[in-house]
Amino acid sequence: MSLSILIVATALAVLAYCCTAGHPGTVAASDTVSAQRPLRGDDTVVSAKAKFELGLFSPGSSGRFYLGIWYKNVPGKTVIWVGNRENPLSSVASAELRVSTNDGNLELVGLSQSSASLGVVWSSNLSSSTVSSPTPGSNDPAPGMFTDTVDHNGSSEFFYLWNGSRSYWRSGVWTGRTFANIPQAAWQNVIFNQTYVETPAYRRLTHVLYDNATIERLVLDFTGQTNQYLWLAGSQRWQLIWSAPTVPCDVYALCGAFGICNQRRQPPCQCPPGFAPAAERDWGLSERAAAVRRQRVNRRGGHGFECTEAEDAAQRPSTFFPVWASARVAEGDTAAVADPRLHGNVSEGELERACRVACWCIQDQEAHRPTMAQVLQALEGVVDVYAPPVPQTLQHLTSLS
Question: What GO molecular function terms would the record report (predicted)?
Answer without folding.
Answer: protein serine/threonine kinase activity
